[in-house]
Amino acid sequence: MSEAAIPFTLTLLVPVFNEEESVETFVTQIDAALPRLKDRLEILFVNDGSRDRTRDVIEALIARDPRITLLNLARNFGKEAAMTAGLAHARGDAVIPMDVDLQDPPALIETFVEQWQAGFDTVYGVRVDRSADTVVKRLTAGGFYRFFNAVSTTTKIPENAGDYRLMDKRVVAAINQLPERNRFMKGLFAWAGFKAVGVPYERPARQAGQSKFNYWKLWNLALDGLFSFSSWPLRVWSYVGAGVAMLSFIYMLIVIAKVLVTGVDIPGYASLMTVVLFFGGMQLLSIGILGEYVGRMFLEVKQRPVYLLEGIYGQYARESQVERAQA
């Protein structure tokens, strides 16, 4: 099927946080890499409470480029919330979440479109070369994917697949129906299902600026993913408790037998403290895991919105004004 056979619009969904150095370069590289798709693209920036000049730079681009829309969040809600806002407002026939740092190579979008037109609802990028990332990040990311897929019984995340993907509007509509406040978007994308295919690519170095993610944020994101899609951390303590109870029973029989044979046994202080501290730590760890689930239940029950919008600017704002005028 040729690109001209059926008209379509692609929405590039780009969350940004303190990215004043990257935004203009991103738009320039998009047009340079995708000349055949230029007239089919719209760019939806979601400003996640930036404290630099990111908003000013985007508004300057809006004045020059009618394809650009800015969703300005009321404060910093996090990347997952920013993507949620973008998916809720995107109007294209397909939506492509991508990073503004150009580590998601724009040229790959043409391959995404080809696979989409061949009948796939989701086309996701698979990083086959992550040499631009640090060794620690590569190891921890690979370990997380394997561990998540091992403990999750219903949702499997393709290894080395990030947020960079093309999703048909049917998939976007399905994800927009999901009401949870703890948003782990990679898991939600995989949970939605539909017909999907991976496209390998090499992940380049960041073009401008610095990453806003650190290992603490990545750790918390990994916990959100694990606790949102698996009850394994809860279930495992049932097995741990049963195993410890069995060992305790066996040890009790040994102590009774020893007392009957050799007389009264006086246990040592060191061994007693070791047992007390060990089981105290185990109990605190299990309570902490329970707390992770209870805390997420607390957030869900309050039903606060995932994000708050300060305003919509650019293409979507103009289209909304026209729609209201015609109504």
Task: Give a verbal description of the structure.
The chain folds into two domains: 228 residues, Spore Coat Polysaccharide Biosynthesis Protein SpsA, Chain A (Alpha-Beta Complex), CATH 3.90.550.10; 71 residues. The protein is elongated. Helices cover 51% and strands 16% of the residues. It starts with 9 loop residues before the first strand and ends with a helix. An eight-stranded mixed β-sheet has the order 7-5-6-4-1-2-3-8, sandwiched between helices. It has 327 residues and is an alpha/beta fold. It has eleven helices and eight strands.
SSE layout and pairings?
Layout: E1 10-16, H1 23-33, E2 41-47, H2 54-64, E3 68-73, H3 79-89, E4 94-97, H4 108-117, E5 122-129, H5 135-151, E6 161-168, H6 169-176, H7 185-192, E7 196-202, H8 215-229, H9 232-262, H10 269-302, E8 309-314, H11 315-326
List keywords for this structure.
327 residues; alpha/beta; 8 strands; Spore Coat Polysaccharide Biosynthesis Protein SpsA, Chain A; 2 domains
Q: Main sheet?
A: 8 strands, mixed
| Amount of helix | 40-55%
Low-confidence stretches: none
In whole angstroms, the N-to-C terminal distance is 36 Å
Q: Could you name the CATH homologous superfamily of the largest domain? A: Spore Coat Polysaccharide Biosynthesis Protein SpsA, Chain A
- Count of extended strands: 8
Query: Shape, please?
Result: elongated
Overall structural class, as computed from helix and strand content, comes to alpha/beta
Query: Within the CATH hierarchy, at the fold level, what is the topology of the largest domain?
Result: Spore Coat Polysaccharide Biosynthesis Protein SpsA, Chain A
Number of helices: 11
What is the oligomer described by this structure? Answer: single chain
Order of helices and strands: EHEHEHEHEHEHHEHHHEH
Can you list the strand order of the major beta sheet?
Answer: 7-5-6-4-1-2-3-8
- What is the CATH-assigned architecture of the largest domain? Alpha-Beta Complex
Q: Cα-atom Rg, whole angstroms?
A: 25 Å
Tally of domains: 2
Q: Overall pLDDT, averaged?
A: 76
Q: What CATH first level of the largest domain would be assigned?
A: Alpha Beta
